[in-house]
Amino acid sequence: MLIIHHWDTDGITSAALLVKALNLVEFKNMSPPIGEFRFDERIKRAIERSEEIYILDLNLPHEVEGINKSIVFIDHHIQPRIRNPKVKQINPALEGEEAPSASFVVSQYFNFWNTWSALGVIGDIGEKAFEIPKVGELLEREGFTKEEALRLVELMDSNYITTERKSVEKAVKVVLETPVRDLLTYGPWVKKAEAIGEAINGALAGAEVRDGMAFITFKSPFNIISKVARKAVWEIGYEGAVVVNEDFHGKAQIYFRISSKMAKKINMGEIISELKGKGFNAGGKREVLGCICEKDKIEEVLRIINAHLG
Length: 310
Known about the structure:
By secondary structure, the chain is α/β, with parallel strands linked by helices. It folds into 2 domains: 184 residues, inorganic pyrophosphatase (n-terminal core), CATH 3.90.1640; 111 residues, Roll (Diaminopimelate Epimerase, Chain A, domain 1), CATH 3.10.310. The chain has 12 helices and 11 strands. The strands form 2 sheets. A 6-stranded mixed beta sheet has the order 6-7-8-9-11-10, sandwiched between helices. A 5-stranded parallel beta sheet has the order 2-1-3-4-5, sandwiched between helices. Helix 4 packs across helix 5. InterPro entries: DDH_dom, DHH_sf.
Protein backbone atom coordinates (compact mmCIF):
# COMPACT_ATOMS: atom_id res chain seq x y z
CA MET A 1 0.00 0.00 0.00
CA LEU A 2 1.40 3.37 -1.06
CA ILE A 3 -0.09 6.62 0.26
CA ILE A 4 0.94 9.82 -1.52
CA HIS A 5 -0.24 12.91 0.33
CA HIS A 6 0.11 16.67 0.48
CA TRP A 7 2.77 18.04 2.79
CA ASP A 8 0.55 20.20 5.04
CA THR A 9 -1.61 19.41 8.07
CA ASP A 10 -4.55 18.40 5.89
CA GLY A 11 -2.39 15.96 3.92
CA ILE A 12 -0.76 14.49 7.03
CA THR A 13 -4.03 14.04 8.92
CA SER A 14 -5.75 12.64 5.82
CA ALA A 15 -3.04 9.98 5.56
CA ALA A 16 -3.32 9.15 9.27
CA LEU A 17 -7.12 8.90 8.99
CA LEU A 18 -6.80 6.56 6.01
CA VAL A 19 -4.37 4.27 7.86
CA LYS A 20 -6.71 4.05 10.86
CA ALA A 21 -9.87 3.67 8.79
CA LEU A 22 -8.37 0.77 6.81
CA ASN A 23 -6.57 -0.70 9.86
CA LEU A 24 -3.33 -0.77 7.89
CA VAL A 25 -0.36 -2.46 9.51
CA GLU A 26 2.06 -2.07 6.61
CA PHE A 27 2.11 0.97 4.36
CA LYS A 28 4.49 3.48 2.84
CA ASN A 29 3.59 7.17 2.80
CA MET A 30 5.29 9.78 0.65
CA SER A 31 4.97 13.47 -0.14
CA PRO A 32 5.92 15.25 -3.38
CA PRO A 33 8.85 17.69 -3.32
CA ILE A 34 7.87 20.48 -0.93
CA GLY A 35 6.27 23.36 -2.79
CA GLU A 36 6.14 21.54 -6.14
CA PHE A 37 2.92 20.13 -7.58
CA ARG A 38 4.38 17.09 -9.35
CA PHE A 39 5.46 13.50 -8.89
CA ASP A 40 9.24 13.25 -8.95
CA GLU A 41 11.26 10.16 -9.85
CA ARG A 42 11.27 8.97 -6.23
CA ILE A 43 7.48 8.81 -6.18
CA LYS A 44 7.27 7.33 -9.68
CA ARG A 45 9.60 4.48 -8.66
CA ALA A 46 7.47 3.82 -5.56
CA ILE A 47 4.34 3.72 -7.73
CA GLU A 48 5.97 1.10 -9.98
CA ARG A 49 6.63 -1.10 -6.93
CA SER A 50 3.12 -0.73 -5.47
CA GLU A 51 -0.05 -2.65 -6.21
CA GLU A 52 -2.51 -0.32 -4.49
CA ILE A 53 -2.15 3.46 -4.31
CA TYR A 54 -4.00 6.21 -2.48
CA ILE A 55 -3.46 9.85 -3.40
CA LEU A 56 -4.71 12.36 -0.85
CA ASP A 57 -5.14 16.14 -0.94
CA LEU A 58 -3.05 16.57 -4.09
CA ASN A 59 -4.56 18.46 -7.03
CA LEU A 60 -2.59 16.43 -9.57
CA PRO A 61 -5.14 14.56 -11.69
CA HIS A 62 -2.87 14.73 -14.75
CA GLU A 63 -0.19 12.72 -12.94
CA VAL A 64 -2.40 9.61 -12.73
CA GLU A 65 -3.91 9.55 -16.22
CA GLY A 66 -1.27 7.19 -17.58
CA ILE A 67 -0.75 4.94 -14.55
CA ASN A 68 -1.92 1.35 -15.03
CA LYS A 69 -2.43 0.63 -11.32
CA SER A 70 -5.40 0.61 -8.95
CA ILE A 71 -5.59 4.14 -7.55
CA VAL A 72 -7.98 5.85 -5.15
CA PHE A 73 -7.75 9.62 -5.60
CA ILE A 74 -9.28 11.60 -2.71
CA ASP A 75 -9.33 15.39 -2.86
CA HIS A 76 -11.40 18.54 -2.39
CA HIS A 77 -9.79 20.96 -4.89
CA ILE A 78 -11.33 22.18 -8.14
CA GLN A 79 -10.21 19.73 -10.84
CA PRO A 80 -11.35 17.91 -14.00
CA ARG A 81 -12.63 14.35 -13.95
CA ILE A 82 -9.88 11.76 -14.31
CA ARG A 83 -10.34 9.68 -17.47
CA ASN A 84 -8.15 6.75 -16.41
CA PRO A 85 -10.58 3.86 -15.62
CA LYS A 86 -8.12 2.47 -13.06
CA VAL A 87 -8.60 5.57 -10.89
CA LYS A 88 -11.46 5.97 -8.42
CA GLN A 89 -11.83 9.72 -7.97
CA ILE A 90 -13.54 10.85 -4.76
CA ASN A 91 -14.07 14.62 -4.72
CA PRO A 92 -17.27 16.52 -3.81
CA ALA A 93 -16.12 19.40 -6.05
CA LEU A 94 -16.85 17.24 -9.10
CA GLU A 95 -20.55 17.46 -8.20
CA GLY A 96 -20.42 21.18 -7.49
CA GLU A 97 -20.20 20.68 -3.73
CA GLU A 98 -17.60 22.07 -1.35
CA ALA A 99 -15.60 20.24 1.29
CA PRO A 100 -13.46 22.25 3.72
CA SER A 101 -10.57 19.76 3.62
CA ALA A 102 -9.41 16.43 2.31
CA SER A 103 -9.52 15.13 5.89
CA PHE A 104 -13.29 15.69 5.89
CA VAL A 105 -13.63 13.87 2.56
CA VAL A 106 -11.63 10.91 3.89
CA SER A 107 -13.67 10.86 7.12
CA GLN A 108 -16.98 11.07 5.26
CA TYR A 109 -16.03 8.37 2.79
CA PHE A 110 -14.88 5.87 5.44
CA ASN A 111 -17.21 7.16 8.19
CA PHE A 112 -14.22 7.52 10.50
CA TRP A 113 -13.98 10.75 12.49
CA ASN A 114 -11.65 12.06 15.18
CA THR A 115 -9.64 15.16 16.09
CA TRP A 116 -7.44 14.72 13.02
CA SER A 117 -10.49 15.31 10.84
CA ALA A 118 -10.95 18.75 12.43
CA LEU A 119 -7.25 19.63 12.33
CA GLY A 120 -7.19 19.12 8.57
CA VAL A 121 -9.97 21.68 8.17
CA ILE A 122 -8.27 24.18 10.47
CA GLY A 123 -5.05 23.72 8.55
CA ASP A 124 -6.80 24.54 5.27
CA ILE A 125 -9.23 27.34 6.15
CA GLY A 126 -7.96 28.65 9.49
CA GLU A 127 -10.34 30.52 11.81
CA LYS A 128 -13.33 29.88 9.52
CA ALA A 129 -13.10 26.20 10.47
CA PHE A 130 -14.60 26.99 13.87
CA GLU A 131 -17.83 28.08 12.19
CA ILE A 132 -18.37 24.45 11.12
CA PRO A 133 -20.34 22.60 13.85
CA LYS A 134 -18.62 19.28 13.16
CA VAL A 135 -15.20 20.81 13.83
CA GLY A 136 -16.29 22.07 17.24
CA GLU A 137 -17.85 18.72 18.07
CA LEU A 138 -14.69 16.79 17.21
CA LEU A 139 -12.44 19.13 19.21
CA GLU A 140 -14.77 19.00 22.19
CA ARG A 141 -14.50 15.21 22.28
CA GLU A 142 -10.76 15.55 22.94
CA GLY A 143 -11.15 18.60 25.19
CA PHE A 144 -9.20 20.74 22.71
CA THR A 145 -9.57 24.51 22.80
CA LYS A 146 -9.52 26.67 19.69
CA GLU A 147 -6.09 28.02 20.62
CA GLU A 148 -4.65 24.54 21.15
CA ALA A 149 -5.98 23.36 17.79
CA LEU A 150 -4.49 26.35 15.97
CA ARG A 151 -1.18 25.78 17.72
CA LEU A 152 -1.09 22.11 16.79
CA VAL A 153 -1.70 22.96 13.12
CA GLU A 154 1.17 25.45 13.34
CA LEU A 155 3.45 22.75 14.77
CA MET A 156 2.43 20.12 12.22
CA ASP A 157 2.92 22.54 9.33
CA SER A 158 6.44 23.36 10.56
CA ASN A 159 7.65 20.20 8.84
CA TYR A 160 6.87 21.40 5.32
CA ILE A 161 7.56 25.07 6.00
CA THR A 162 11.16 24.22 6.84
CA THR A 163 11.16 22.17 3.60
CA GLU A 164 11.97 18.92 5.38
CA ARG A 165 10.30 16.33 3.18
CA LYS A 166 11.41 13.39 5.31
CA SER A 167 9.97 15.10 8.39
CA VAL A 168 6.64 15.52 6.60
CA GLU A 169 6.55 11.82 5.84
CA LYS A 170 7.63 10.94 9.38
CA ALA A 171 4.87 13.20 10.75
CA VAL A 172 2.20 10.66 9.72
CA LYS A 173 3.82 8.05 11.96
CA VAL A 174 4.26 10.60 14.77
CA VAL A 175 0.54 11.46 14.60
CA LEU A 176 -0.46 7.79 14.56
CA GLU A 177 1.73 6.87 17.54
CA THR A 178 1.39 9.94 19.78
CA PRO A 179 -1.64 10.97 21.85
CA VAL A 180 -2.97 14.07 20.12
CA ARG A 181 -2.53 16.32 23.18
CA ASP A 182 1.11 15.27 23.57
CA LEU A 183 1.81 16.59 20.06
CA LEU A 184 1.54 20.13 21.48
CA THR A 185 4.88 19.66 23.22
CA TYR A 186 6.63 17.51 20.61
CA GLY A 187 10.13 19.03 20.74
CA PRO A 188 11.26 18.90 17.08
CA TRP A 189 8.09 20.65 15.91
CA VAL A 190 8.20 23.32 18.63
CA LYS A 191 11.77 24.32 17.73
CA LYS A 192 10.97 24.65 14.03
CA ALA A 193 7.83 26.68 14.71
CA GLU A 194 9.80 29.33 16.60
CA ALA A 195 12.15 29.96 13.66
CA ILE A 196 9.22 30.08 11.24
CA GLY A 197 7.34 32.69 13.27
CA GLU A 198 10.26 35.08 13.02
CA ALA A 199 10.48 34.65 9.23
CA ILE A 200 6.74 35.24 8.69
CA ASN A 201 6.71 38.45 10.69
CA GLY A 202 9.72 39.69 8.75
CA ALA A 203 7.93 39.14 5.42
CA LEU A 204 4.73 40.88 6.54
CA ALA A 205 6.71 43.89 7.73
CA GLY A 206 7.56 44.67 4.09
CA ALA A 207 3.98 44.59 2.73
CA GLU A 208 2.83 47.27 0.27
CA VAL A 209 -0.92 47.91 0.32
CA ARG A 210 -2.98 49.26 -2.58
CA ASP A 211 -6.80 49.39 -2.54
CA GLY A 212 -6.99 46.86 0.26
CA MET A 213 -4.71 44.40 -1.53
CA ALA A 214 -1.35 43.51 0.01
CA PHE A 215 1.68 42.92 -2.24
CA ILE A 216 4.44 41.13 -0.36
CA THR A 217 7.88 40.19 -1.70
CA PHE A 218 10.66 38.46 0.23
CA LYS A 219 13.35 35.79 0.01
CA SER A 220 13.42 32.75 2.28
CA PRO A 221 14.43 29.06 2.24
CA PHE A 222 11.31 28.39 4.35
CA ASN A 223 8.07 27.53 2.59
CA ILE A 224 6.17 30.26 4.42
CA ILE A 225 4.42 31.77 1.42
CA SER A 226 0.93 30.38 2.17
CA LYS A 227 1.28 31.27 5.86
CA VAL A 228 2.20 34.86 4.99
CA ALA A 229 -0.83 35.13 2.68
CA ARG A 230 -3.20 33.60 5.22
CA LYS A 231 -2.04 35.91 7.98
CA ALA A 232 -2.36 38.92 5.68
CA VAL A 233 -5.96 38.06 4.71
CA TRP A 234 -7.34 36.17 7.72
CA GLU A 235 -5.64 38.00 10.59
CA ILE A 236 -4.67 41.45 9.31
CA GLY A 237 -7.81 41.71 7.18
CA TYR A 238 -6.59 42.62 3.68
CA GLU A 239 -9.02 41.88 0.84
CA GLY A 240 -6.30 39.81 -0.77
CA ALA A 241 -2.59 39.16 -0.81
CA VAL A 242 -0.23 38.58 -3.71
CA VAL A 243 2.89 37.07 -2.17
CA VAL A 244 6.17 36.33 -3.92
CA ASN A 245 9.14 34.42 -2.54
CA GLU A 246 11.78 35.45 -5.06
CA ASP A 247 14.29 32.73 -4.17
CA PHE A 248 12.96 29.48 -2.77
CA HIS A 249 15.81 27.03 -3.31
CA GLY A 250 16.53 28.46 -6.74
CA LYS A 251 12.89 28.79 -7.82
CA ALA A 252 10.23 31.45 -7.38
CA GLN A 253 6.98 30.91 -5.49
CA ILE A 254 3.86 32.99 -6.11
CA TYR A 255 0.78 32.71 -3.93
CA PHE A 256 -2.48 34.60 -4.35
CA ARG A 257 -5.16 34.48 -1.63
CA ILE A 258 -8.39 36.46 -1.54
CA SER A 259 -11.12 37.02 1.04
CA SER A 260 -14.54 35.40 0.74
CA LYS A 261 -15.91 38.77 -0.37
CA MET A 262 -13.35 39.08 -3.17
CA ALA A 263 -14.04 35.49 -4.26
CA LYS A 264 -17.39 36.72 -5.58
CA LYS A 265 -15.58 39.15 -7.89
CA ILE A 266 -12.53 37.15 -8.94
CA ASN A 267 -12.73 33.78 -10.67
CA MET A 268 -9.67 31.96 -9.35
CA GLY A 269 -10.36 28.95 -11.56
CA GLU A 270 -9.96 31.11 -14.67
CA ILE A 271 -6.59 32.42 -13.49
CA ILE A 272 -5.36 28.91 -12.69
CA SER A 273 -6.50 27.67 -16.11
CA GLU A 274 -4.75 30.54 -17.86
CA LEU A 275 -1.50 29.89 -16.00
CA LYS A 276 -1.66 26.17 -16.77
CA GLY A 277 -2.41 26.99 -20.40
CA LYS A 278 0.85 28.89 -20.56
CA GLY A 279 2.75 25.95 -19.09
CA PHE A 280 3.02 27.10 -15.49
CA ASN A 281 2.93 24.67 -12.57
CA ALA A 282 -0.12 26.10 -10.80
CA GLY A 283 -3.04 24.88 -8.71
CA GLY A 284 -5.55 26.01 -6.13
CA LYS A 285 -9.21 26.42 -5.32
CA ARG A 286 -11.90 29.11 -4.94
CA GLU A 287 -9.93 31.55 -2.80
CA VAL A 288 -6.32 30.58 -3.38
CA LEU A 289 -3.76 30.05 -6.12
CA GLY A 290 -0.24 28.70 -5.86
CA CYS A 291 2.44 28.70 -8.54
CA ILE A 292 6.10 27.77 -8.67
CA CYS A 293 8.20 28.95 -11.59
CA GLU A 294 11.63 30.04 -12.73
CA LYS A 295 12.74 33.32 -11.21
CA ASP A 296 12.75 35.09 -14.57
CA LYS A 297 9.06 34.20 -15.05
CA ILE A 298 7.78 36.06 -11.98
CA GLU A 299 6.67 39.14 -13.92
CA GLU A 300 4.75 37.05 -16.46
CA VAL A 301 2.75 35.30 -13.72
CA LEU A 302 2.06 38.59 -11.96
CA ARG A 303 0.84 40.18 -15.19
CA ILE A 304 -1.74 37.42 -15.56
CA ILE A 305 -2.92 37.84 -11.96
CA ASN A 306 -3.03 41.63 -12.26
CA ALA A 307 -5.07 41.42 -15.47
CA HIS A 308 -7.80 39.63 -13.50
CA LEU A 309 -7.49 42.10 -10.64
CA GLY A 310 -8.08 44.96 -13.05
